């Protein structure tokens, strides 16, 4: 294991005085014609031998007789506290800890004062495993480790059922109401989540407490908070009482009025064009949308949008917006259709009394003091 130079070899040879150390190698130039100067191309050349990992050998020239040579007395063991014997073994130990750091599959042993590298029986699992990966790391019997399939090492995860197939893990959500205990959860929801509840019975005997199935959490209809499936504070949804007029809703069943329009409980269906139930100051009461404003949704998916060239008339109907092409007054939300610039194309213009900035905006082509003149 200890690589030597030519000078070191000469020293080792003289110290060891052993014929086994002296051989055709890198430092025997005196007796080797090929290395005593007759051949300049090879003089002093030596390809170092590969390290064999043995603390009781020194490495010489690759392919030579001194490639790996046992040397008595070389230090070995932990902190070089032991010495190599004539058999190339690390000797002088009293416990295996002095020999070195082995592995679970190749641990050191101290037998009769000599360090021996042993091999664990094949198939023995090592201590460090990855739980639930359907694999097992075990010893080969020759000091190495190998990974093999272990279909008993199934994945374990709350609200999931694990399985292995030839070393490949997979999981599927556990059945609904399977017991669990994760972050305060009690039951599996059937989708792989451990939730507080899957039904009202999980929330106790309080008749005002219910389970929100969407999120699997318990809520109360008298806690002063909009939560669960409530559409407003402590009302609406499937569990709490119906909401009063003007309160939030998602469907008519959320409302005492049985009308839900524009997201609030309304006094009427309020599904006509340019009527709304969420107008400022009139929440819960169906009223007409302001003139030239929009109605994003009414009836059966209809709308009155400026981007589509439409606008509310202020009388509960939808017509063409200002600037849109027209043929008659009745086409326009302003009830004013004209061709003030005489270009042959009529457009919807502002009516008398509407705010304006320039004459061309007005039906009569006159804007005075910020208003279209009569």
Topology:
Blueprint: E1 2-3, H1 6-16, E2 57-59, E3 68-70, E4 75-76, E5 82-84, E6 90-91, E7 108-111, E8 114-117, E9 135-139, E10 145-149, E11 160-165, E12 168-173, E13 187-188, E14 194-195, E15 209-212, E16 217-220, E17 260-261, E18 264-265, E19 275-276, E20 287-288, E21 295-298, E22 302-304, E23 310-312, E24 318-320, E25 337-338, E26 347-348, E27 367-368, E28 371-372
Parallel strand pairs: 1-2
Antiparallel strand pairs: 2-3, 4-5, 5-6, 7-8, 9-10, 11-12, 13-14, 15-16, 17-18, 19-20, 21-22, 23-24, 25-26, 27-28
Total count of helical runs of at least 4 residues: 1
Strand line-up in the sheet with most strands: 1-2-3
Taking pLDDT < 50 over at least 5 consecutive residues as the criterion, the unreliable ranges are 2-43
N to C succession of SSEs: EHEEEEEEEEEEEEEEEEEEEEEEEEEEE
What's the Cα radius of gyration? 47 Å
Helical/strand content category: mainly beta
Strand count: 28
Query: Biggest sheet, open or closed, and with what strands and sense?
Result: 3 strands, mixed
Overall pLDDT confidence: 88
Intertermini distance: 111 Å
Helix content: under 10%
Q: Per DSSP, what share of the residues sits in E-state strands of 2 or more residues?
A: 15-25%
What is the subunit organization of this protein? single chain
The gross shape turns out to be: elongated
């Amino acid at each position: 294991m200890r690589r030597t130079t030519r000078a070191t070899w000469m020293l080792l040879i003289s110290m060891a005085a052993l014929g086994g150390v002296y051989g055709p190698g890198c430092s025997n130039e005196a007796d080797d014609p090929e290395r005593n100067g007759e051949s300049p191309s090879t003089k002093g050349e030596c390809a170092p031998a590969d390290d064999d990992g043995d603390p009781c050998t020194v490495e010489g020239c690759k392919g030579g007789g001194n490639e790996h040579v046992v040397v008595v007395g070389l230090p070995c063991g932990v902190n070089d506290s032991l010495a190599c014997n004539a058999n190339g073994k690390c000797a002088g130990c009293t416990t295996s800890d002095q020999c070195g750091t082995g592995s679970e599959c190749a641990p050191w042993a101290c037998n009769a004062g000599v360090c021996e590298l042993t091999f664990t029986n094949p198939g023995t699992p090592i201590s460090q495993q990855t739980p639930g990966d359907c694999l097992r790391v075990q010893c080969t019997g020759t000091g190495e480790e190998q990974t093999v399939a272990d279909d008993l090492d199934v994945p374990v995860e709350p609200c999931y059922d694990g399985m292995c197939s030839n070393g490949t893990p997979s999981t599927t959500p556990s059945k609904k109401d399977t017991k669990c205990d994760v972050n305060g959860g009690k039951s599996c929801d059937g989708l792989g989540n451990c939730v507080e509840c899957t039904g009202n019975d999980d929330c106790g005997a309080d008749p005002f407490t219910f389970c929100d199935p969407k999120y699997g959490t318990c809520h109360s209809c008298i806690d002063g908070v909009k939560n669960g499936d409530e559409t407003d504070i402590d009302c609406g949804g499937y569990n709490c009482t119906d909401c009063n007029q003007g309160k939030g809703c998602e469907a008519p069943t959320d409302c005492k009025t049985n009308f839900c329009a524009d997201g609030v409980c309304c006094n009427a269906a309020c599904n006509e064009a340019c009527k709304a139930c969420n107008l400022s100051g009139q929440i819960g009461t169906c009223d007409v949308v302001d003139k030239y404003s929009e109605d994003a949704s009414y009836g059966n998916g209809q709308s009155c949008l400026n981007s589509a060239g439409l606008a509310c008339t202020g009388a509960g109907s939808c017509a063409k917006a200002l600037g849109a092409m027209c043929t008659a007054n009745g086409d326009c939300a302003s009830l004013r259709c004209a061709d003030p610039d005489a270009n042959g194309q009529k457009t919807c213009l502002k009516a008398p009394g509407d705010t304006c900035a320039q004459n061309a905006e007005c039906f009569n082509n006159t804007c005075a003091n910020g208003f279209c003149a009569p």
